[in-house]
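Sample pair:
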Amino acid sequence: MPGGDSMSRHSRIDDDRGTSLVELLVAMGIFLVVMAVVTTVAISGLRTVTTATAVSDIQVAQQNALLWTTRLLRYADNPVEGLNPTPWVDYDSASNAEGASAVTFYTYSGTGPLDGVPYRVVLELDAAGDLVTEVSTPQKPTESYEGWCWTPDTGDCSTITEDTARRVLVAASDGHTPGLTLTYRDEGGTVLEVPGAGGSVDAWNDWASQVDTVDIRIFDTETPASEVSQLVKLENPR
């Protein structure tokens, strides 16, 4: 049938026409919109995972720092009490000027190679913004020397060699800065103000004799929700 053959040929011609430029542009536009949405969602998800991982790492570091600091402070004690009265903190140390965010103290926590000796500890935020401790092993310049030396100084202590181990507890990184707050309380829970670096020996002795607990708070200035804290009771009587 002539008519039927003509219709069949037209159908085949219509089927082989391909895609017009307009249709191609529309399809490409839709594809680009879909890809933009998918890419945005993927980037957002990646950022969320990266942020969550960073916060998790910070919390782990803060928790480890809290455990270490708690151990050090719990056994704080005066190594020369009765011999040369000084408080269990190094009141002469410049790091104590801030009081609430730095402290230098002595501890029998056994944090080094020797047992039953008073280590000196500096707990502070250093110039780089890291939360660090520096633990000095006590030494005696001579067997008969009464007391201890921690770092080379004047007199008999000038003969010793320095033995200090530095430990970064929480490192400052892009967008994250560690913070430290120390709150001292007496047995009744009353907050005790730190005398400061300019305080007299008597003022420091009086303050140190009243401290019963230390509230340690370690946090990240950019992610406050990651804060960890611990109330530490000093084991050794003043």
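The mean pLDDT is 81.
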